[in-house]
Amino acid sequence: MLGVEHLTVRYGSQVALEDATVRFEAGSFSAIIGPNGAGKSTLLKTLVGLLPDHQGAVRLDSGHSAQSCVAYVPQQQTLDWAFPVTVWDVTMMGRTGRLGWLRWPGRRDRTIVEEALRETGVYDLRHRHIGALSGGQRQRVLLARMLARRGHLLLLDEPLTGVDATTQEQLMALLRAQADAGRAVVMVTHDLEQARRWCDHLVLINRRIVADGTPEQVYTPHNIEATFSSSHLGHTHAEA
Ligand code: ADP
Ligand code: MG
């Protein structure tokens, strides 16, 4: 449904991803796992069309354009939380577009936003300024905005970072339910154990795809070692 074939991405002379081929299916909850600098965010950004400069193919089989069916949650720290908007406003951006009021929201938009806020447990906070939220509440709002897009493909970059354990489990259950409802859910995470419990598809990555399959197929000592041992990192290039 969504995937890349022989994808290579470079930043200047540095190769962030090399010859990566992987598919993400509707109805599947996939976890992308690997060490810092492994190319996880690069893979997600390529899938959503944010990195047009790459070699290889990005496949989207649904017949829709990426913009209309993909909902993407970037790593939390990349967002400006001082921006003077409320929880409701941010979630409504899932309907109207990120860069402002591309169109005036209608009743259906308001209904969808309300549902998304209730599903993620932040409806009672809807009038609150986003700067006044805890890390867990912020992450719920980002998920609400994502759900409000009503996309078929949900891509999330480390959505559980800085989130308490209870919220993490709730969010994983919510994402599992989205996959069970027929969406393709793809999440970058550091938590192998959690991914094994909730996801049906694991992709281990370290500049290349190290392993790709069901948790039973992928979660082996050999694969974990190959993914996380520093000798496999692209350390031929000096890191800042
Ligand atoms: P991950 O998300 O797995 O931590 P990234 O995809 O963010 O890894 O980055 C992969 C590699 O590419 C890293 O070495 C990172 O430093 C480098 N990189 C990422 N983004 C840029 C960029 N905009 N410019 C230059 N190098 C980058
Ligand atoms: Mg990243």
TrEMBL record:
Residue span(s) of domain ABC transporter: 2-231
InterPro entries: AAA+_ATPase, ABC_transporter-like_ATP-bd, ABC_transporter-like_CS, Metal_Ion_Import_ABC, P-loop_NTPase
Superkingdom as given in the UniProt entry: Bacteria
This protein's UniProt keywords: ATP-binding, Nucleotide-binding, Transport
Hydrolase keyword on record: no
Family named by the database record: Belongs to the ABC transporter superfamily.
Keyword check for Aminoacyl-tRNA synthetase: no
Molecular function as annotated in GO: ATP binding; ATP hydrolysis activity
CDD domains: ABC_Metallic_Cations (cd03235)
Pfam name, any one: ABC_tran
Gene behind this protein: mntA
Listed name of the protein: ABC-type Mn2+ transport system, ATPase component
